[in-house]
Amino acid sequence: MEDPNDSDTSEWTHLSHSSNGQQTVLVSLKRILVGKVFAGEYVERHYVDFLSTYRDLVVVNTDETDFSTALIKASKMTRETYGRSLWFGVTDNEHDGTPKGYCLWVNLFQIPLGKHWFQVQSVDLYQREICLRLKHLRPFHAESSQATKRELVSSELIENFDLHKFYQELEWSQVQNFVLHLLVDASAWCILNIKKVLTYENIRETVKFCSVLILVIVTFLIEASKFLCDYSLKLIRELSNVIRSTTPITMGIIEFFTKCVGGFYLLIVMLWRGSTGPPIPPNAISASFNPNSGWSGQRAIKYPPQAHNRYGYGQRVHQPRGRFSDY
Question: At the top level of its lineage, which domain of life is listed (predicted)?
Fold first, then answer.
């Protein structure tokens, strides 16, 4: 008798393995198709019987061989994993009335009929289908198709490049392998070309070239130092002459502005004080209060009183005169 728990466990294991396989296939599909740029013609909106709904029909251009190869690989991988249980939106003349070539059954929004440049933006897994999500880039022009494709691919790569994601996905083993291959290639090139490079003529020409180069460098340094020294001396002499010539002019200008400013301040002071008459000398003011002093500020001279005649009024007494006296 079988244990029911064992059957449940085996069924759960089978489901988990199948879900893991589906996720692996979906990741592989994204790695194969996402980012591809191709030219296609939007033909019509067609009815899909398996989904009971409408899808936009885009026919891939016959020149897109790389993208067609990627579609074949993706269709084979999907058919091997899902069988007929899911609708994969890529067909190759499987429906009546569809144009010749690979057809993409997608959902487009507000895009006119005709040829356009598209890019596979994502691969979406729904309940009953696997659908490609396309991004419209620009209308198609036949005269510049190859150049336009290269420009679109380069621009999309630059826009979608994520440096942080690149460093996260970069593994140390890849770096080691790159460096190892680089060293191996460099060593192989050296071994193969060492005999062709190390010849007598090459060595002689190399020595001659290095000698001439060293002589040219030394001569240039000597001449440059001479020129710089001479130029510095002439510059210093001319600067000294300029300073000596401009010093009097500068001092005169400074003195002129100094006098202007001083006169301006003096004018302000005179306007502020007003006119009060000439100032009185301090000696004259002190002399007005001293009866024995004159206006000159010196002490007054005292003269002796006249001698009166003791014998009569008004008669003068004979006074002896000196030898040098005139009176």
Answer: Eukaryota
Instruction: List the chain domain ranges.
Output: 4-161, 199-271
Q: How many CA atoms lie within 13 A of 184 on its CB side?
A: 6
Residue 46's contacts (CB-CB under 8 Å, 6 or more residues apart) are 54, 55, 56, 57, 95, 97, 98, 105
Half-sphere exposure of 18 (CA within 13 A, CB side): 10
Half-sphere exposure of residue 60, counting CA atoms within 13 Å on the CB side? 28
Cβ atoms of 85 and 22 within 8 Å: the answer is no
Find where tokens 């502005």 sit: 257
pLDDT digits (tens, 9 = 90+) for 206-253: 999 999 999 999 999 999 999 999 999 999 999 999 999 999 999 999
User: Could you tell me the two tokens for 28?
Assistant: 């592989």
- Mean of the pLDDT values across residues 175-199? 78
User: What is the separation, in whole angstroms, between the first and last Cα of the chain?
Assistant: 186
Give the separation between CA 229 and CA 222, rounded to whole angstroms: 11
Statement: residue 298 has pLDDT above 60? no
Residue with token string 């190759």? 92
φ and ψ at residue 298, rounded to 5 degrees: -105, 160
Q: At what angle do helices 65-82 and 4-33 cross, to 10 degrees?
A: 180
| Nearest partner of 109 among 177, 56, 61, judged by Cα | 56
Length of the chain: 327
How many Å apart are CA 16 and CA 13, to the nearest integer?
A: 5
Using CA atoms, how far residue 40 sits from 31, 48, 189, 323, in Å, is: 21, 20, 45, 157
In percent, how much of the chain has pLDDT > 70?
A: 64
CA neighbor of 120 nearest in space, from 46, 196, 199, 67 = 67
Residue 227 CA, chain-centre distance (Å), reads: 38
Look up residue 316 and give its two tokens. 């003068």
CB atoms under 10 Å from CB of 79, counted, come to 12
Report DSSP state, residue 135. E
